[in-house]
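Kindly draft a sequence, keeping tokens residue-aligned:
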Amino acid sequence: MMNVLAFDLGGTNIKYGVVSQDGNILTQGKVQTPNQLDDLLFIIKDQLRNYSLYNIEGIAISCPGSVAESGFIYGSSAIPYIHGPNMKKLIEDSTGLAVSIENDANCAALAEVWKGSAVGKSDIAVVVIGTGVGGALIKNGSIHKGNNLHGGEFGYMILNANNLGNGMSTFSDVASTSSIIRRVALQKKISQNLLTGEIIFSDAEKGDEICQEAIADFYYMLAIGLYNIQYVFDPELILIGGGISQRQDLVSEIQDRLMQITDKIDVATLSPTIDSCYFSADANIIGAVHNYMKKTDQIN
């Protein structure tokens, strides 16, 4: 059986792994993200040599940015040198192998459809909660990128515009991990550097009222965003990713807020079906391989 060498390009580290065509990671590792494009190409070729006994047929890449079919990666990220050149062509020319490239959130969504919480689903939304709010849309089993490659950029949605432009807040402003940290730090008059999402949730469980209120409002605003996504896209399932998706009470907390919202809106006859993402650290690698197999017509 032939295998695929996958790379997940992050701002700090590059994760890599050899993945079989049925989605099993055979071996994996990581290296520090280099500062120059030539060094990135060297890492890819070096790992290709290291895993030559694994019958590598192609290379799958997961990365930040808006990825066009042509192989260009638009936007900006913590890896600035990938935005500009045709990365697909560069890597193909350097390795002599077929290459696929896809946005990291889209790869995470594909992993869930292939092997995770969304197996058997055709239309899903994945909402990733982190420093901001990102995500992806899967329509008829494939990534829906949109006309401007911005499909699934949920963080830009406006959730609070009481003053017609003054004090306007986006989904990322009110329902990200950093939004909770900002609020708690402001109320406690301490540096944000002293807080993490884990610390705030832990303090809330110990009875800290400031943390409890911040988390309650976070869940409510998150539920509003998910409600909006449901009525715009009407997916079968909405998955929540990011570090917070590991919390056992996540789904029940969101469902409680969704019930509060739908009870207030008479015409709201539908509430989203919510679940947590199955994958965490390996999602982008597995999804990148799924994307490679779709691009090379090995699966539908």
